[in-house]
Amino acid sequence: MTDVDQAGDPVAAVDALVAGVDPGLSTPGVQSRDVVLVTGPWLAGATGLIAALRDRLPEHEFVEAEDIKPAEAPAAVVFVVSAVAPIAESDYALIDVAARHTDMVIGAVSKIDVHRNWRDVLAEDRSRLGAHAERYLDVPWVGVAATPDMGEPTVDELVELLASRLDDVDVKRRNRLRAWESRLRNAISRHDKDGAGADRQARVTALRERRDTVQRERRVSKSERTIALRSQIQQARVQLAYFARNRCTSVRSELGEDASAMTRRRLPEFETYVGTRVNEVVGEVEAGVTAHLSDVATELELTAPQPPAPPPRSTVPPPPLKSRRLETRLMMVLGAGFGLGVALGVSRLFAGLAPGLTIAGLVAGGVVGLLLTVWVVGMRGLLSDRAVLDRWINEVTATLQSTLEERVATRVLAAEATLTADLARRDEAEAEVTAGQVSEIDAELREHAVATARAAALRDRRLPALQRALDTVRAELAGGPGV
């Protein structure tokens, strides 16, 4: 052991010893207090033991754990455990914290007045605590009864042990050595953790996960929007084409019914009516396409495409009602024959009823035959006109359907191009935002990497000197009397 001048200041001598190994070390960072800390698990009897010790050793100050600050080191630590059961693993942390800066530790088993097997518990406590840390192998253990049910407190052995140990001139030196050991061990552990980046690892892992999440969400969001736009455009193409065909079929049925009930007086205005209905259907389909594409843009949170200029009004070609001169002559011949037959039948009917009315019967038969001839010729012409109008309506609506389907396809294609361009601009803006977030994360990761590298360099530079100082302190502790 290094020869330390006991007549001088033992604390200063220890500090000088450590500074001689590592000049960068000057103090362990704790303040020594001339007090005795009495602590232990809950209900172990520490409070009662403090009262008894204060009564027996009034020249010394006894305190509990809450009276000691983290940067203060008591002169001695009395660790009190109950004789009910041996010390538990959860109690090790209490004594480690209480004695981290103090070498003088005494174990006390309380309530020995009510537990006859307290000696067995004491032996088990000594064995367990020594197995927990080598420094506790030589810790003295005593039995106490600070507040017995009957008789005086049993604290004589503890009082004698404290009095002898506290008067030992080497206590301050060993306590200072223990404070240095704790400081050096913590410093080495801190440098190891900083150099390995252990304290930064959780943050670095969180940053990497966040970066992966941001990039994954960006890719997923882009794919989802692209798929949604493609799906909506396909649906719009199908639905709007069906809407156009449906409107053409509907107006075909409507005009067909009108044509089947057509009269010669309405024939001149029917062509104008058909043209009006065709343009109305065109307007309805245009409005439907505009509304549907606007709904698609709204659902995708994009800018709705501007509707194009309305198409020019459709000009419906006139129905092919051609002159039917030969057909009319034939119908007149046939009608005349039919009327002549009816006239002969009527005249014979009159002649059979009254022979004197033969002339009148001929006249009446002629009139009836003429009327029937005119009616047959007119009806045949009207039916022919209705058939022509029906074919004409079919041609008009077929042309209308083809035009509307082409119009729908053109508008959907233009809308797809517009919405795709808008989506690309939005994706580009979000890509810039994502790139900014990733850049910030990467910058912080680089900062952590640089800090970890600096800590590793500092560790490599400081660790040898700290380890030598720790070895020196432990050698001093091992060369002196036990705790």
Q: What brief labels describe this structure?
A:
483 residues, 68% helix, alpha/beta, 10 helices
Query: How does the overall form come out from the CA principal axes?
Result: rod-shaped
What's the quaternary structure here? single chain
User: What topology, given as strand order, has the largest sheet?
Assistant: 2-1-3-4-5
Order of helices and strands: HEHEEHEHEHHHHHH
Instruction: Return the average pLDDT rounded to an integer.
Output: 83
Residue runs with pLDDT of under 50 for 5 or more positions: 1-7
In which range does the helix fraction lie? 55-70%
Gyration radius from CA atoms, angstroms: 57 Å
- Using DSSP, what is the number of strands? 5
Distance between the termini: 16 Å
Which structural category do the helix and sheet elements fall into? Answer: alpha/beta
Main sheet properties = 5 strands, parallel
In percent, how much strand structure appears in the residues?
Answer: 5-15%
Number of helices: 10
What this model shows, in words?
This protein is of the alpha/beta class and 483 residues long. Helix content is 68%, strand content 7%. It contains ten helices and five strands; from the N terminus they run αβαββαβαβαααααα. A five-stranded parallel sheet has the order 2-1-3-4-5. β1, α2 and β2 form a beta-alpha-beta unit.
